[in-house]
Amino acid sequence: MNAKYYNPDLTDIYPPCRLHVVNHPINLYQACIMETQVVDISKKLIDSCKLHMDEWHSLKGFVHDMIALGIQTKYKDLTTYDTLKTDRHKEKKEKEREVFYTSKVDNTINKEKTKKWIFNSEYIPKELDFCKDLVAKFWAVKKGSRSKEAYELLVGHYGLLGIRRKYGLKDGEKAVKEQLEEGIANKWQSITLKNYEAFGRPQKADKEPVTNHPAGRVFRNGRFVDD
Questions:
Q1: Residues 72-96, mean pLDDT to the nearest whole number
Q2: Residue 77, helix vs strand vs coil
Q3: Which is the most buried residue in 83, 126, 170, 202, by most CB within 10 A?
Q4: Which residues contact 193 (CB under 8 A, 6 or more apart)?
Q5: Is 181 exposed, middle or buried (0-12, 13-18, 19+ CB in 10 A)?
């Protein structure tokens, strides 16, 4: 070490501090590249610096930072350190509050989107008023999904309305009631026109009725018989 800068009272633990002495304002970068000059600093101040500096700081760098900060604070070029720390804390809180609010709004929207659909007998079409009570009972005991889509399948064109419209006022309404009663008793998942025609509709219902008109009868062995 250069004897000019060596101070035996501080030992190797407290290396000499070289500070810039200039007659005009400078920034930290300028201070680091300019020629240095030795200035005496009290041991207590050195100890205080060591106590408060972070582990990545060098003593020289920390002293430079504190002096530059002090000069800028003194002459109103920089917000004080405590105020700066408080402002950053407030800014962080504001960001956290904004994120929380945004998340809360998003969650509320998602909950609205996924809100469970609830059956109401008022939704039943007027055309099915004759079986309104049966539809409500069926919905209460049915197996499977109770979503809006399941309801629309039950009462729509592929379900009860399909049966009612295809087979007319009398036969259609009778078939719908029978299907609902069976569905309630057996707790079906749904009632569809397709299943009704495949499994529920009487097989003889689609056959042409037999007439007793002579033109529709066969003469055999000396008399008319039904073929």
A1: 63
A2: coil
A3: 83
A4: 157, 158, 159, 162, 163, 166
A5: middle
Contact by Cβ (8 Å): 38, 5? yes
Number of domains in the chain: 2
Tokens standing for 181?
């009663």
Is 47 or 14 the better-scoring residue by pLDDT? 47
Q: What's the Cα-to-Cα distance from 124 to each of 14, 117, 129, 187, rounded to whole Å?
A: 90, 14, 7, 19
Query: Residue 10's closest CA among 37, 50, 68?
Result: 50
In a domain, 211, yes or no: no
What are 100-152's pLDDT values in tens digits?
666 665 566 555 556 788 999 999 999 999 999 999 999 999 999 999 999 99
Q: Which residues contact 45 (CB under 8 A, 6 or more apart)?
A: none
130 lies in some domain: yes
Question: pLDDT at position 60, please?
Answer: 85
Question: Are the CB atoms for 173 and 180 separated by under 8 Å?
Answer: no
Of residues 198 and 114, more confidently modeled: 198
Q: Which of 56, 74, 92 is the last residue of a domain?
A: 74
pTM for the model? 0.43
Residue 44 in domain: yes
> Is residue 130 domain-shared with residue 189, that is, in the same domain?
yes
**Is 36 contained in some domain?**
yes
